[in-house]
Amino acid sequence: MVPRWRYDVWDSGSIMATCSPGEHIILPRNSHISAISAMVLSGAIPKYIIPEHNCNWDIAGGITPSQVNKAIKELEMEGQKPAAVFVISPTYHGICSNLTEISQLCHSYGIPVIVDEAHGAHLGFHPQMPHSALKQGADLVVQSTHKVLCSFTQSSMLHMSGNVVDREKICRSLQTLQSTSPSYLLLASLDAARAQLSENPETIFNKAMKLATEAKILIKKIPGITLLELPSFTEFPTIDPLRLTIGSWQLGLSGYEADDILYGNHGIVSELVGSQSITFAFNLGTCKEHVQRLVSGLQELSACSLQIETTETKVKDRGHAPFTDISMSLNPRDAFFANKRKVGIRESLGKVCGELICPYPPGIPVMIPGEIITERALDYLLGVRRKGVVVTGASDPLLSS
Fold first, then answer.
1. In sequence order, which ranges of 305-389 are alpha helices (DSSP H)?
2. pLDDT in tens, 327-350
3. What's the pLDDT at 58?
4. What is the DSSP string of 304-329?
5. Half-sphere exposure (Cβ direction) of 282: Cα atoms closer than 13 Å
6. Which of 319, 299, 337 lies closest to 40, judged by CA?
7. Which helix H or strand E contains 99, and what residues bound it?
8. Given this model, what pLDDT does residue 381 score?
9. What are the Orn/Lys/Arg decarboxylases family 1 pyridoxal-P attachment site domain coordinates in residue numbering (predicted)?
10. Which domains does the chain have, with CATH numbers?
11. What is the DSSP string of 125-181?
12. Residue 315: its pLDDT value, please?
């Protein structure tokens, strides 16, 4: 375990330590911006897996063992072997991949598995929770300790298991990326979070689990409110029980509209807002009053919104995956350092993207340097910006060019 700060440093260091310039890395196209930045730094070439996308929810899932196997075979046919496989599990919405099978598959080829477990530092600390990535055989695991546990914001940990990855390479990569003046406040908060867990690791999440279960039971009874459950993503073994994602499209409301009402009228702060959904995170600080306020707010939202029967036109305004037709002209590193020019937004269609552009949160790039700009990706970006989402990475923040 290497405690430090900034989970994006861990992602970058893990990829730099396993991938040399020109080597391939298999990863989902909805990876965090830090993974893309790591490919710029390392010179690794992405072999993307397009994750399952549920259009009703406008949510992407994780990746499956069969998708990983297919990607490995495709690279083999090109005379290539991936230097690493990068997996996000759980996703921001709590969807967990089958890491046990993915790890076994990759290790049979001698390929290291890196898991972005930013939202899963708590996994394994309750019998009803999914197993942690380390427990399932991952070699390098990046956790944002501050997201569900109780360390300070920015603090995170990198865990390493086994001997598939060269420890010296990890150290050299991290030395390149880290400050020589670490924040001891952040380090102390990580140690405090570790100590808190060690006192009663088997029961510390009992209260949070109980509150999450009670909240879901009550929310399921609210007319017009839909709860994200496993049947929406049948290829995946489980969803983090401490993540609660609701949809309000039956009330004629987008996720952004519903979130504005919940925050403005009830002071309810969500973890993540999407075009069709709102996600809430339960943690060690969640209390009964929080659940009561959330349920009360959703009940009022339901009662005051349009009747379900009259919202058919709005229900049709569903999300669409912006990643299904990607085409890469240059690898991210070459595109990052290439000369660039600015053109009008519509004139950019069919040209090679020179910027790393992503809505935030969650920080998943819609356009990556080196990819061909498609109408679908462009429409998606313009659509989320119209809804008030912050779009980062573009030299023109208005997205007019």
1. 312-315, 332-337, 375-386
2. 899 999 999 999 999 999 889 999
3. 87
4. HS--GGG-HHHHT-----SSTT--BS
5. 27
6. 337
7. helix 99-108
8. 87
9. 15-222
10. 7-200 (3.40.640.10), 205-307 (3.90.1150.10), 332-392 (3.90.105.10)
11. SSTTSPPPTTTTT-SEEEE-HHHHSSSPTTEEEEEE-SSSS-HHHHHHHHHHHS-SS
12. 45
pLDDT at residue number 151? 95
- Rounded to the nearest angstrom, the gap between the alpha carbon of residue 245 and the centroid of all alpha carbons in its chain is 14
- Alpha carbons 272 and 134: distance in angstroms, whole number: 26
Count the neighbouring beta carbons within 10 Å of the beta carbon of residue 46.
24
Task: Determine the distance from the C-alpha atom of residue 389 to the mean position of all C-alpha atoms in its chain, rounded to a whole number.
Answer: 17
Tell me the C-alpha distance between 307 and 116, whole Å.
41
Tokens of 248: 């309000």
- Separation CA 132–CA 126 (nearest Å): 11
Identify the pLDDT of residue 312.
43
Using CA atoms of 265, 362, 2, 124 in order, give the dihedral in degrees to the nearest 10.
70
Comparing CA positions, the residue from 373, 377, 331 lying closest to residue 36 is 331
Which of these, 116, 93, 115, 96, lies nearest to 106 by C-alpha position? Answer: 115
Question: Is-contact 318 247, C-beta < 8 A?
Answer: no
- At 5 the pLDDT is 46
Instruction: Provide the angle, in degrees to the nearest 10, between the axes of the packed helices 167-177 and 7-18.
Output: 130
User: Which residues of the chain have a pLDDT value below 50?
Assistant: 3-5, 308-316
Phi, psi of 170 (to 5 degrees): -60, -50
Which of 90, 136, 91, 83 lies closest to 112, judged by CA? 83
Q: Look at strands 140-143 and 272-273 and give their pairing.
A: unpaired
Two structure tokens written together for 375: 């109408």
> SS3 of 101, please?
helix
Q: How many CB atoms lie within 10 A of CB 59?
A: 28
pTM of the model: 0.93
Which pLDDT value is given to residue 321? 63
Distance (Å) of CA 315 to CA 8, 60, 249, 300, 319: 36, 19, 6, 20, 10
